[in-house]
Amino acid sequence: MSLDMEQPIVVVTINFRLGAFGFLASADLELDNRRSGDAGVGNYGIHDQILALQWVRRYIGAFGGDPELVTVVGQSAGGNLSRWAAHQELFNQAVIMLGNTFLTSRSLELQEGIYQTILAHLRTPSDMPTLDRIRRLRDVPANELLDAYIATGSPLPNWQATVDGFLLDELPRPSRIGNQQYDAYVRRIIIGHHLGPAEIAKLGWTPGKIRHLLSSYFPAELVTHMTLFYDLSDFPNE
To answer: Start and end of every Carboxylesterase type B domain (predicted)?
Structure first.
């Protein structure tokens, strides 16, 4: 279609680490990062995304693209890329297709609870010295680490970005997008959503269960706004 409109585009698709491999964070890992000379903690998957966008800005001209006109496009979890990488000034426009509400950002304190659950699943003593715990984690086969991450028990993704004071310095504020408060270099953003991916409805969840789940991810005030907006009272408890 872009060719028919005589406005061709160059498409670059990227991969990034997910789950524990991309977003596991804890005080242990923060200490290990500092010992290695790295700032921040977690957010390894976001670093992958940023590296890919840096590559685009540097080399896209060789493929006929314009490094000063980069548009990021993401669906669901990918829709969060525009927010996670926004302050890096690596793109000018964004198309967010159903940015996942639950894939936001968490404080290190919340991430610590997930980390401790994983350690318990892997039978790693909590009183083991920090470096020994990290060394044991690195020796765990990838499939076992994945199983441990799944064992955290949430029906929703637990792999979320961490507010580390380096890559991300604040918890997300949906009102910024709602009020069109973008960074100066972002020209425009297109946002869309639909009800199709609401698979949670198939799990037989009642409004009470949904509110309880939301409260584990969001502040009470935001939970109130969300439940009023979607009017959970319209749905039966049976």
So the answer is: 7-180
Backbone torsions φ then ψ of 32, nearest 5 degrees: -65, -40
Q: Is 184 in the same domain as 207? A: no
79 exposed, middle or buried (CB, 10 Å; 0-12, 13-18, 19+)?
A: buried
What element of type H or E holds 192?
strand 188-192
CA–CA dist 133, 135 (Å, integer): 5
Could you tell me which residue, 114 or 86, shows the higher pLDDT?
114
Active-site residues, by number, are: 76
Query: Does residue 183 contact residue 86 with C-beta atoms inside 8 Å?
Result: yes
Categorize the per-residue pLDDT at 191 as very low, low, confident or very high, splitting at 50, 70 and 90: confident
Give domain status of residue 24, yes or no.
Answer: yes
For residue range 15-34, list pLDDT tens digits in order.
Answer: 888 888 888 899 999 988 88
Q: Work out the average pLDDT over 33-57.
A: 88
Q: How many domains does the chain have?
A: 2
Query: Does residue 135 lie within any of the structural domains?
Result: no
**What does the pLDDT look like over 104-127, one tens digit per residue?**
667 888 888 888 888 988 898 878
* Spatial CA neighbour of 18 closest among 161, 205, 194, 178: 161
Based on the domain organization, do 167 and 205 belong to the same domain?
Answer: no
Comparing CA positions, the residue from 211, 202, 200 lying closest to residue 233 is: 211
CA distance 86 to 186: 8
Q: Is the domain of 208 the same as that of 99?
A: no
Q: pTM here?
A: 0.72
Residues 57 and 165 in one domain: yes
* pLDDT of 85 over the 60 cut: no
